[in-house]
Amino acid sequence: MSEDLKDIKSIALQMEIDGIKFYNDLAGKTLHPMGRAMFRSFVEDEKLHAKRLRALLSADKKAIQTKGKDAVDSRQRLLTIFQEMGDELKKRVTVNTNDIEAVRLAMEIEEKGIEFYELSAEEANDVKEKETYHFLAGEEKTHYSILKNTLEYLENTELWEAENEGRIYDMWTNIVNKKI
Question: Which of 113, 121, 128, 173 could potentially form a cystine with 140 if both were Cys, beta carbons 3.0 to 4.6 Å apart?
Answer without folding.
Answer: 113
